[in-house]
Amino acid sequence: GDYRMAVQHLDMAHLLFDLGGDRPGVAASLDDIGRVYFLVGKPDEALRCHRAALAIRVELKDERGKALTLAWIGLVEAQMGRLGLAQQSFERALSISQATKDPHGIVFTLLDLGALTREAGHPQLAHKLLSQARDVSRTLGDRLTECHLALQIGDCLLAQGEHAAAEKEMRAAKATAQK
Predict the structure, then answer these.
(1) Are 26 and 51 in contact (CB under 8 A)?
(2) Residue 64 predicted with pLDDT over 90
(3) Cα–Cα distance measured from residue 173 to residue 132, given in angstroms and rounded to the nearest whole number
(4) Which helix (H) or strand (E) holds 73?
(5) How far apart are CA 15 and CA 52, in angstroms?
């Protein structure tokens, strides 16, 4: 919880990666710093870091890293209320994750896109996106993510007035969490 200290350590890591000529390390440390700024409610600083990381990842042709950074940018844009820009970032991240066949990237980007879509008042579309994420998550055997997705799907079903189906999802999430 000591974000000031976290940024100091991450700044040092950034400097060391830079001195060592480790460009992927520089990009990763910039994303980490941006994430801390996001958590403390400094979205402009977060975007600055993530955009710098994205530029490096583009230069390195690091597609998986680019998708991750775009997802972070999408989260910041959503926090700032710029939902259209957030959606564009998530869709670009999803496209890259699908092209690189990165199942983790696909799952988490669909989760972000589903949450954004639900918040925008489209629970049916969000349900569809989250169900796709759950299908991919099941192939990974990631039970914790499946549990989280069941909760999100349950919220979508509640928003659609499908209370029995929502309860079934919530109970499934509880059972998975207890295991």
Answers:
(1) no
(2) yes
(3) 17
(4) helix 63-79
(5) 14
